[in-house]
Amino acid sequence: MPVGLFRVCLLVITAIVNHPLFFPKENGTVPENTEEIIQKMKEREESLRLEQLRLEREIADQEASQKALEKAAVVVEESKEEKVRWDMWTALSMVIFLLIELWRQDFQEGNWQDVGGEEDDMAVLGKAFKGVAFPDKAVLASFYEKRILGTTGDMARMREMVEGFADDLLEALRSVCNRDADMEVEDCMGVGSMYENWRVRKPFVCDLIVPFAPPEPYCFRCQTWCSGDSFPPDEQGYGTIKVCRADEDATGCICDKTKLGEDMLCLLHSQVSSTRPSREMEDLLCFKNTQYLDADQVMKWFQIAVTKAWNRISHKYEFDLSFSLLDSPGALKIKFKSGKSIAFNLTPVVQYENSDVYFISHFPRSSLAADIPSSTHWFLTFAVYERRFIQLVSKTLPANACHVSCLQILSFLHGKQCSLTGPSGLTNYHLKTVLLHLLQARPSQDWAPEKLEARLQDMLKFLEKCLHEKKLYHFFIGNGKVPAELGFPIVFQRAEPLNLFRPFVLRRDIYRKMVDTFHEMLRNMSALINEYTVHIPLAHTNGIRKE
User: Fold this and answer.
1) Does residue 196 or residue 282 have the better pLDDT?
2) Ramachandran category for residue 519: left, alpha or beta (phi over 0 → left; psi -120 to 50 → alpha)
3) Is 134 within 8 Å of 526 (Cβ atoms)?
4) Which of 31, 138, 401, 429 has the fewest C-beta atoms lying within 10 Å of its C-beta?
5) What is the DSSP letter of 499?
6) SS3 for 513?
7) What are phi and psi of 274, to 5 degrees?
């Protein structure tokens, strides 16, 4: 009980002591401080709320911009994929369109037939040959004896006369040239149909090539399209000839490729010699401001040299000599007082290394080099090897083989047809290339004289196949089967085959003319041959015979 009363009293006393009315001065500012604190807290709360709103807006803006960037990236990626798909389909559509167009044009021409799998590799003659009577052995033998065989003696006499005069003319040319400054001219060589004994069309024209070399201390460095450097497709078969000093590296001195600076001097080339290379190169028949031999400059030099040489020896001969073609450097014509004339070509060439391949400046009466890229590009001729190959193969053939007769007859028919309908892209060189391929493909016994008719048909079949495919490959370039006895340069054997019909792929007008001329020749063949053939009983004239 006392303890309880004590607790009650202690509680009352504590309440009285802590009542605020007992201490009015100490506790009078409490209500004011509380309101100020509450006001500051409210202001702080408001500022925090505003800051929160600002941060929320910034976060929202960043998220919106990020979404926009992601959306833009997706759109760009989709557009790229769509563009790639569109480009692919566009290219594929154009290819399909071109293939359809080419097929349509070939189909509309209607001159070719499908070749079955059982046909011979040389293909069969096309529709234009259907129903055309092919002369038999008797007619062909009579035609050959009457029209062609008698020209052999005339060719031999003309070759002898032209070669003798050409040797005399070149000797005079050497005497009028400056040995220290002018080109050095070597002996001439006969090439082409006159020296391969298959030319039949008159007038007879001898083709002679004359190698020449620069004066000492210079030399020629030749570069061909198959030497490793890249040449455009339209320059295949060509090469360039660089005039260099004999002691100069093939790649040239480094001073020509590097700026040495004003205080440096090349020990090999003095300042004096570097001030006159342009004029010196022009004197060496180079193209302006280059070291490359210019075919046009060579043509002018050769014509002037030949004129001087003729003036020196003209008193020895009872005929006149003149240039027959202005665009050919050595197209010469001998005119006798009787009115007769003899034409021959004396063409300057440059030897390729130590071989019998030559760079030729011009092809007279030929379309082989009709579109020369520039005057510094020289066409390569393999005429010497072609002549040697024919001579080599002839030794393995039967006596009186018919290979030359086939080429003579075909050349005669083609020449006659061109005289009727005008010239075409097809040349005698194409015909000879066909023969060279068949000589390599056929065994020796197939060229016996009694098989003239069959081999002539083979040549026509092969030629029509080439016309149909627009492919007639050069015999030597890319041919790994060239006999080793010829000593043919291996660099040309390893080269890509050269298509002689490539210029006609894009020039459809010339190609169409060439095909029309060929088919017209087939239709007129019997009439052309019978015109120069003695009468033969009808029993001997048959249609096409297949061996």
Assistant:
1) 196
2) alpha
3) yes
4) 31
5) B
6) helix
7) -80, -10
- Cis status, amide bond into 203, omega within 30 of 0: yes
- Paired sense of beta strands 189-191 and 378-381, if any: unpaired
The residue count of the chain comes to 547
Q: Is 261 helix (H, G, I), strand (E, B) or coil?
A: coil
Say which range, 153-157, 210-214, 405-409, has the weakest mean pLDDT.
153-157
Helix orientation angle between 508-531 and 403-421, rounded to the nearest 10 degrees: 110
In this structure, what are the phi and psi dihedrals at residue 126, rounded to the nearest 5 degrees? -80, -170
Largest pairwise CA distance in the chain: 181
CA distance 241 to 292: 6
Judge contact between 278 and 289, C-beta under 8 A: yes
Dihedral of alpha carbons 420, 424, 429, 433, sign: negative
Residues 53, 58, 59, 61, CA torsion sign: positive
Rounded CA-CA distance 28/30 in Å is 6
pLDDT for 82-104, tens place per residue? 666 666 777 777 777 667 766 65
How many CA atoms lie within 13 Å of 334's alpha carbon, on the beta-carbon side?
Answer: 22
Whether 495 contacts 546, CB under 8 Å: no
DSSP structure string for 402-416: SHHHHHHHHHHHHHH
CA dist list (Å): 87 to 76, 83, 92: 16, 6, 8
CA 454 to chain centre: 35
Residue 256 or 493, more confident = 493
What six digits make up the tokens of 71? 């959306």
Nearest to 438 by CA among 469, 411, 477, 407: 407
Dihedral sign for Cα atoms in the order 140, 146, 148, 150: positive
402 has pLDDT over 90: yes
Question: How is residue 235 annotated by DSSP?
Answer: G
Domains of the chain and any CATH numbers: 119-247+281-534 (3.30.460.90)
- Residue 509 has, within 13 A of its CA and on its CB side, a CA count of 0
Cα 417 to Cα 460: distance, rounded to the nearest angstrom: 15
3-class DSSP state for residue 13?
A: helix
Residue 384 has pLDDT above 60, yes or no: yes
Q: What tokens does 546 get?
A: 């297949």
Q: Could you tell me how far CA 493 lies from the centroid of its own chain?
A: 17
Between CA 462 and CA 245 the distance in angstroms is: 48
Tell me which H or E stretch contains 207: strand 205-213
